Amino acid sequence: MKKDTLKISIIPIDNRPICYTLLSDILSQDKNIELYMPKRSALGSLNASADTDEIFDFVNNLPNVDIMIISLDTAAYGGLVSSRRCSESFSRIKERLLKFKEIIRKKAGKIYAFSSIMRISNNNINEEEKEYWAQWGKRIYEFSYYQHKSRREKSYNCVYNQIPEDILNDYLDTRKRNFEINKLYLDWVEDKTLDMLVFSKDDTGEYGLNVEEAELLDYEIKSRKLNALVKTGADEIPLTLLARALCKDEDIKINVEYTYPKSINKISRYEDISVKDCIEGQLSLAGCTISKDSDLTFLVNNFENAQGDWVLGDLTNRYENPLVLPEQNFFIADISNANGADNGFTEQLLLKKCPENLFGYCAYNTSANSAGCAILSAIVKFLAKKNGTYCDNAFKKLMFIRLLDDWAYQANVRKYIREAGNDFLKTLDEKTKDMKKFENKIANYLNFDYNNTYYSLPWNRSFEVEINVENI
Predict the structure, then answer these.
(1) Is the dihedral of CA 372, 374, 376, 379 positive or negative?
(2) 275-285 vs 367-387: helix axis angle to the nearest 10?
(3) I need a labelling partner for 341 at 20 to 30 A (CA). Which of 98, 189, 368, 458 fits?
(4) What domain count does the chain have?
C-alpha cells in the first residue's frame, strides 16, 4: 500500500546551490516526498541578508508538514554570512525570534534546527566578515586563540593590545550577542518547540573563543539533559538532520570502510576532530547504526598522511592503489582533499559503468560536508527503493551534478577561474568547453541522457559553481 506523501519544509542557511538546489536534487530521488522551501530570492547571499519578513510569511502560509528543518541563523540574522556582519541588537533579534517561535510550533510534526557558533577565520580576507577583517583578521584570530589558551592553561596572553580598542570591542560585542542568542535556543529545546538542536562549529581549531563557547554550550546541554548537540561542520548539518528525521522509524545499519584504515585518527583541514570521529559523528547524528552486519557500506576515501586542499593548492593527494568497490549497496565520501575530489580515485571509479549498487557520492569542501551530503543521498535512495517510490533518473541527475561540481570543477577547472583575477565569468565561459569533456565522461559512466548544462558563479566568485541540467 502506497504511503502518504511525506511533506518536508526546509529553511536553508543561504542561497548557495549547496544549501538550496542540492536539497531538491537529493530529495527528488523519492517521488513520495513533497518539498517546501522559501523562494531562493528571499534567502541571504554573500552581500545581502535574507528577507526575514518574506521568510516568516512563507512559514505562515505553509500547510502542516511532517518535518521542518530550520537554519536559525536565517531567522535571526538573515543568513550565515549575515550572522557575522549583522549590527542589530540582542533585544531586536530576540523579539523577532520570539515571533518566529510562535509561528513554527504550529506548523510541523517534528522540528529540527541548527545554529552556528560564530567562526574565526585565520586570514585577512573579509569576503564573509566585517570590513575590518581585511586588516585585523589574523590579529583577531591570534587574540582569540591566546585568550582561550591562556585561560585554559593559566598562561600569559601577549596579543591583547595589538588590536584597536574600537575594533576589538565591536568584534567581542558581536560574539557576545550571538552567544547569548544561541543560549536562548536551549529554552526552545526544553519547552519542546524544537525536537532537536545542533550548534555547528565552522572552520574551527584547537583553541579560540568559538571553541570556548562550544564547550560552554555543551556543558549547558549536558547539565540540562537537552536533546541538543555541538557539532563540527556547517553546511552539511541540515542534510544530516534531515537524514535523522527520515530514519526516525528505521534502523539503518552502516558499515564504514576506509581506503587508508591506519590513518583514520588523523585530523582533516578546517576541523578539530579525527576522520573517524567526523564520519561516525555524522552517522550518529543521522540516526544510523554503525555495524559490520549492515544495509549499506560507507566507502570513505581518506588520506594517508595529511589532507590536501584544492583551494590552498599547497598539497593535493592522488589515490594510486587499485580501487576495489564494495559488493553490497554502498556510497562514497571522497575526503582525500578538502574542496574537491581525488583525481586518481575518481578516474578509477569512472573506468567502468556506474554499478547499480552505488547509492551516493560526494567530495565537496570539508570532510564533514562531504560525509553529510553522501549520507543523506544514500538514505533517501535506500528508503525510496524500499518503499517503491524511487526515481532512477533523479539519482543519475544528482550524481551527474555532484561529479561535475566536486570532481570536474573543484579539482580541475576552478584553478583556471581563480587565476583569472576578477574576470571570473568570462573565464568560466571560456572553460565551459573543458567542462563538456568531463560531462561526456560522467554521462557515459551513469548512462544519463540530458540536453544541456548551464554554468554560473552565483556569488560572483570562483569558490562555488552552479550547474543546471536540462533533462531530455
Answers:
(1) negative
(2) 40
(3) 458
(4) 2
